[in-house]
Amino acid sequence: MTASAASLDSIRTEVDRALRDFLDRQRPHFSDPHLAALLSAAEDFIAGGKRLRPAFCHWGWRAAGGGDDPGLHVAAASLELLQASALIHDDVMDASDVRRGMPSAHRRFERMHAEAGWHGSGRQFGEGTAVLLGNLLLVWSGEMWRTSGLAPEAIAAAQPLHDYMLTELMCGQYLDLLEQAQGESTFDSALRVALYKSGKYSVEQPLRLGLVLAAQASHAWIDRLCVQYGQQVGIAFQLRDDILGVFGDPAETGKPAGDDLREGKRTVLIARALASATPAQTAVVRSLLGDPALDAEGVAQLRTVIEETGALAACEGMIKRYLDDALHALDQAPIEEEARTALAALAVAATSRRT
Amino acid sequence: MTASAASLDSIRTEVDRALRDFLDRQRPHFSDPHLAALLSAAEDFIAGGKRLRPAFCHWGWRAAGGGDDPGLHVAAASLELLQASALIHDDVMDASDVRRGMPSAHRRFERMHAEAGWHGSGRQFGEGTAVLLGNLLLVWSGEMWRTSGLAPEAIAAAQPLHDYMLTELMCGQYLDLLEQAQGESTFDSALRVALYKSGKYSVEQPLRLGLVLAAQASHAWIDRLCVQYGQQVGIAFQLRDDILGVFGDPAETGKPAGDDLREGKRTVLIARALASATPAQTAVVRSLLGDPALDAEGVAQLRTVIEETGALAACEGMIKRYLDDALHALDQAPIEEEARTALAALAVAATSRRT
């Protein structure tokens, strides 16, 4: 095991502990037996994330000279509640059936409705409950962040960023919906969505929160590092996500093969394929992309187009260039050496992952 | 105009101003023209509420000796963002088409999708956007509350209550979904939902927040007033809502006649009707309640059952008793006289409203 893998493991352990402690604080509010299903769903959807966002926050904190402080693990772990909330709502919006190899939240509650033989529409019950569960995790994320136990001055310095991150996240997700609806995305518009929808809140903002929590202020070098390293790793992270959404192994991703194709996601990968597709290839994309009933053969046809247009290779090349540029910026930053090494390893892990 | 109506008007003016100022602070984040529709929907859904929750918060603050502080208007107004968020999500969950006489948020965005001739499912686009819009208002509500400008000690004293209110709200809405799904609600379970889903966060918690903001601590008398006045006015408020959902005038409520009947809401009113219905009356309720295609004649049939079983009169009687008990508790509380008069008027307004 490499040193960086060991450190990611140890961050994961601390994050898991902080999340368990937070849920234990909420447990007394769920003493009504009718609420048990809601709490246990919250627990299941919090479990099993990659904990990349807390890791970026952790190493941002260390990069700016932050020391050992249990409060930092709590603040960093709160980002996982936000992520779980976003995934649960995303699955409702995309009508996705599966998440991390389990039924998505709305499907889980739809099944509970069916098994109990309850009244009314099971779909509506499932979706409604998933919206509420996502809301619960969203408000808990803010509560956990604010009650981390970090110094009040640290939290006060970073709170405006945290507030802005949430507004930006909702706006980015809206831009994503709009992009799918408008359909004819260009390469540039798809890239903008990749940055706003995921890149910023997956990498740049967690990193920035950690840096500002430790520095208790924003500095020009922090902003430079967040843009030049954070945004570029963020976009590369999302490009990897796009590739996994088409070519990923269901056993590793926990999502059905070609799920993004079935949902008609207008990713950078697709925009790049369309930009250099022949009329015949364009026709294949137009007829198959977004077909909810797309089967294995359809997935294979679309994969072939994406490979033969050079889009897959182009996206891999972009990931490599963004990563190289990010690592170069990281080298220039006036940060702690241990954090520099860890952030370099984290950038590689985030952009070469298989899940 | 009575003094209390004048004071509610002046609170409304301050609340509207605070909401406008807050939105103006957010406006720079919406410079991308693609985001304009999201911001203007937020503005429309914030406009036009009754501002009852801010009024309970305002008079809680004054009751515990709080003075003139512009920050209080901001903190109180933040409750309207929370309410707008809950209504937007509620309408998605209930598949309601109309809110305050306008299309509900998901219908508004579904229509935008249709008019633009965009790709994919307009329903899915509308619901997805409504979920995000509700999320945006939910996070803004927390941000506005924390950045009111009130003394940090005041906010710190009330923040745990605010956090708990949000958890309780999501749990209460889940219990409501569960109650509708399980169908065979008893009088007691319907009453519990009335308290948890709406009563607490409409009256008790706004009042409690105002009291604790001013007192910068919780006291036994605060708790007593919140339970004996706040919860009872809250339940009576929800009972009035239940009655308006069946008997309300669409021109006043801004919702279609008998909307709650079409949605199959298992309210206290319905539970009370079923408790003393003849077999024939029970059959009418079972066959019509929750029928999405329920027409005017069906609404009239159900209204007749609710009146003839005595359920309407019983609910009116309950409202009166809860109100009387609340006013009695208010008389005993060690609070400022001006606030006592205003809270009495507010309790009457909240439980005798026609919209």
Automatic annotation (TrEMBL), chains A, B:
Pfam families in the record: polyprenyl_synt
GO molecular function: metal ion binding; prenyltransferase activity
SUPFAM superfamilies from the UniProt entry: Terpenoid synthases
GO biological processes: isoprenoid biosynthetic process
Record's keyword annotation contains Iron: no
Record keywords, A-Z: Magnesium, Metal-binding, Transferase
Membership in a protein family: Belongs to the FPP/GGPP synthase family.
Protein name: Geranylgeranyl pyrophosphate synthase
